[in-house]
Design goal:
mainly alpha; 15 helices
Length: about 300
């Protein structure tokens, strides 16, 4: 009887009775979006990207061409190359001093914005107070106020404080206008850090400040890099505040220095292009090194929380 049952079962599953391997599992089905993406010819993807990249790089190539091409040349190829325009703007047009002033303003704005935004963002993320909602609304509404509308009040304030023709006035103005967005981003990033991590540090005997520095601060690196780099680039490129608050030539920054190269009757295109290259190099270097952190920081601080 046992043999009969075995023959009956083997007849139902002949593959198993012969010792064959089980049939391989079917491959997971791909979504319609994945199949549609794979079916698109690659040239339909690379062609628009190539056109966009071409239109993006042409202005930079044109600026570089005028910067290294000899005066009077009409060649579309930067050869032979010359450094006369860079030497002229760096030595004769005081761009070495403008570069130094811009670096001071950019680094000081970066430090001030990051520190104040870190304190304000932590307060919004960890504490509850009555005007918290109104304060957040005020931060958001402040983004709609153009900086040009605040020039006259800021000028009067700095004049009373005797800070006109001082780089500190530009640093304060840049920091004030960078803080709302920076506080919102840092607040959203701190909300993603579990409070339980700080509570565990408190149990071990750490104060709130020590627990923040030891536990929370290392996890905020992408957000801090994003906020700091954005503050640096904005203050480096900003023209209006430096133009209004700095009248002495030895206190001017690179954007104002570029404006001095544009004369009433003529423009030295070679010198202007060389100055533009000098102004663009630090920004390109910053974004080249922090690109990954910048995207992570902005997405984490703006989307979550």
């Amino acid at each position: 009887m046992t043999a009969a049952l075995a023959e009956k079962n083997s007849a139902r599953t002949p593959g198993l009775s012969m010792g064959d391997d089980a049939p391989p599992p079917s491959a997971p089905r791909r979504s319609k979006r994945e199949r549609a993406f794979d079916d698109v010819p690659r040239w339909q993807i690379y062609l628009p990207l190539g056109i966009y990249l071409l239109f993006t790089l042409i202005p930079f190539y044109w600026m570089f061409l005028f910067a290294v091409r000899p005066a009077g040349s009409t060649s579309l190829v930067p050869w032979p190359m010359t450094g006369d325009h860079f030497s002229k703007v760096w030595n004769e047009r005081s761009f070495a001093l403008f570069f130094q002033n811009s670096m001071i303003v950019g680094v000081a704005t970066l430090i001030a914005t990051t520190l104040v935004a870190l304190a304000g963002g932590y307060a919004l993320a960890r504490f509850d107070f009555k005007i918290k909602g109104a304060f957040m609304l005020a931060l958001l509404c402040s983004q709609f106020i153009p900086g040009a509308l605040m020039l006259v009040p800021l000028f009067e304030i700095f004049k009373n404080l005797q800070m006109i023709n001082s780089l500190g006035s530009v640093v304060i103005a840049e920091t004030v206008f960078q803080l709302p967005l920076s506080i919102i981003l840092i607040s959203g990033f701190i909300k993603n850090v579990p409070v339980s991590l700080e509570e565990a540090a408190w149990v071990d005997g750490c104060s709130r400040f020590k627990a923040f520095c030891a536990v929370v601060l290392p996890l905020l690196r992408p957000g801090l890099i994003a906020v700091g780099s954005f503050a640096f680039v904005h203050s480096w490129n900003h023209f209006l505040f430096a133009l209004m608050f700095l009248s002495e030539q030895d206190k001017q920054t690179i954007p104002v220095g570029l404006n001095t190269l544009i004369g009433a009757d003529s423009v030295d295109l070679g010198a202007l292009a060389a100055g533009g290259v000098i102004a663009a190099v630090p920004v390109v270097i910053v974004f080249a090194f922090i690109q990954k952190w910048l995207i992570t920081g902005f997405s984490a601080g703006a989307v979550k929380g």
